[in-house]
From TrEMBL:
Domain Radical SAM core: 214-473
The keyword Metal-binding is annotated on this UniProt entry: yes
Key words of the record: 4Fe-4S, Iron, Iron-sulfur, Metal-binding, Mitochondrion, S-adenosyl-L-methionine
Keyword Kinase: no
Cofactor section: [4Fe-4S] cluster
MF GO annotations: 4 iron, 4 sulfur cluster binding; metal ion binding; tRNA-2-methylthio-N(6)-dimethylallyladenosine(37) synthase activity
Name recorded for this polypeptide: Mitochondrial tRNA-methylthiotransferase
Organism: Acrasis kona
Pfam families xref list: Radical_SAM (PF04055), TRAM (PF01938), UPF0004 (PF00919)
Amino acid sequence: MLTQRKNCIQAFCNFRKYSKLASKPWLNGPGLSDFLKKSVPTQTVEEEVPSSVSHYLDAQEHQPENNLESEEQTKNVFVETYGCQMNVNDTEIIQSVMKNAGYNNTNNIDEANVVFLNTCAIREGAEQKIWDRLSNLRHTKKRGVKIGVLGCMAERLKEKLLERDRYVDIVAGPDSYRDLPRLLGEIEGGQQHAVNVILSADETYADIAPVRLSSNGVSAYVTIMRGCDNMCSYCIVPFTRGRERSRSVHSIEDEVRLLSEQGYKEITLLGQNVNSYVDRSEESSTGLGLSDENLPKMSDGFKTIYKLKKGGLRFTELVERVSNIDPEMRIRFTSPHPKDFPDDLLDLVKDRHNVCRSLHVPAQHGNDACLERMRRGYTKESYLELVDKIRKKIPDVSLSSDFISGFCGETELEHSDTISLLQKVKFEHAFLFAYSMREKTNAHRKLKDDVEESVKLRRLQHVTQTFREQMLERYASEVGTTQLVLIDGKSKRSKEQWVGRTDNNKKVIFDDVDHLTDVSTHVPNVKLRPGDYVTVKINDSKAQTLFGTATNRTNMKTFYN
Ligand code: SAH
Ligand code: SF4
Ligand code: F3S
């Protein structure tokens, strides 16, 4: 865990934490506090960001309700989740599979018969955390608990995992969750280990209804595609998640419709490469996302290493259709690739009130030669042109990004190009990492991990400070504006305050009051609840939080009219 913390920084951190970075950069999980029950040491107001804005989670423990259905049922499963939101949603699928197999979800590890760690392999530190966790889980083995390592680290290491830790019973990759009951059956039948790490070309779990464990009833994740074909040279994801494949548009629409009926007010469409979505079983009826030659439209100046395939229903059309389901439901998406932001997608973000004006545009670096070594398919100039176009079309958009410091061969000069990119763009959120070499990747085979660890960390700190200066400016510029805020819940600092988010994904804290009028229904003195939209006048900004005064309850339609 410590290794992971030494190597990356989630730039949602508050300043006190940043100020420690020189000596000890650490990944804190702001934005994770909905998940991080045990592993976040403090709960400051600054960290209190709802689940849907978190991107890469340091360690999450889903602690679902212990929904025992009958007294006799005694098989309990406890799942701990690490990694990105895809893993969070995968855990919801795992819980669903296990529930159907007769297991209860428990939030108490002492009651569990089965403990699953849903793991991440993105950096060395992410895996070290799992090794540490496995060694302190050994005591549970004494009472016969079965331990399963699932997800990306399981996929990466396969049987090697069992060689290193003989207490692990099950190893299952991201495409074998349907098989978990059978794998457990083999162990219960006396087999020593059970492994399924077969990657699938078409598994999307489209027919499995996720058990929404961590949800506040306001926001939910909907996975729309899995895998990645991009093969960025540093990245393990294509090896742990396999080839890109998308769910059918109908299964996604059905899931979103159900979430709307259940009262959810915000969904985040998920995918390792979310905007490469294509449903090939459907033909586009609108042409959105397609060029005249029926090829997918890309952002100007961007290229891809794989051959573009004609036709299908593309991401822009999917977002359009999903946003039609419930005009009061906010739509977000992550994690996109900058190459797949065609103009019609940007127009949709601009024109549709419920498609949120907050875009993640992961740059990774600001230097052309380094971007080339990373195999990202764009230059600094084309990236800046895209940002320019986005900001021109959608002036109040907020932008976030990912950056890697200390990639193979990175010089001081190259690093300074990342700094100037940060200064130009002024992101409101960023996920900042020190490069961690991953076996099997193109960089591992062809390049040298030649930047000293101390240099990586120094540059990471420089990137972090630069990001932070610009971010503070962006937040301060919201003071004096009136924002439509969706309430997530009570503030952790005070029961007298609410916390919610603006359309462009900024956290807002404001006092609970009982004298507001609902301007959409004209009902006076309404009592506010999570999932309500309120207009908030922003009075102050501190770190990555805005503070304001609620002026009325409303809905999206009334607000934008
Ligand atoms: N599909 C997403 C990213 C998924 S991984 C995208 O393309 O944006 C999340 C982030 O982890 C990446 O954006 C990158 O910044 C970081 N990352 C990936 N591999 C890494 C490595 N080997 N070392 C350090 N950071 C890495
Ligand atoms: Fe990794 Fe690149 Fe795919 Fe993102 S787009 S998951 S960084 S290979
Ligand atoms: Fe980690 Fe796998 Fe997500 S490697 S970042 S859990 S796709």
